[in-house]
Fold this sequence. Notes:
By secondary structure, this protein is an alpha/beta fold.
Amino acid sequence: xxxxxxLASKSEVRKKILxxxxxxxxxxxxxxxxxxxxxxxxxxxxxxxxxxxxxxxxKANKVSERKYDDLxxxxxxxxxxxxxxxSKPANRDEAFKILQKLNGQKHQLISSVCISxxxxxxxxxxxxxxxxxxQMNDEELKTYLTKIKDEKLYAYNVYQIEAEGRxxxxxxxxxxxxxxxxxxxxxxxxLNILK
Length: 195
């Protein structure tokens, strides 16, 4: 299996997942204006899944154009609540409103990954997990938010399944690595083919 790739993301969680699975990565964030891209895709009536795929591809290609001959992995995760995209919060009020929307509901966490070489996509994959949030009152939601540090809240949406976020859910269906933003099983399968 190829064991060295470039990760076009500053996500510590994604880096750790790769490392835990024996894949070394150099981190080069893509520096993409995600909100602007999301906005234009949503105006064009793109589904949350399509937004996730496009962002993963954009990140991988952007770094790949600078790092010729290297394999570059781009990734993006979004929350899909009844066909509507839920974006990362910009502040704590937004985080609270997102939790209120998800409260007692089942939603999908969509994680897309893309590997690019020489500026073009050579492989991509999208995986989904379903999460059903407990019914909680506003005080419980506020208490949960006090446990989450700002940088975690804004980088990883409103919950981190590997930490405090697990306590929010009644039912989790799907791969935990997908929920954490990187369906690593499929990435490893593809890298194995490339030997």
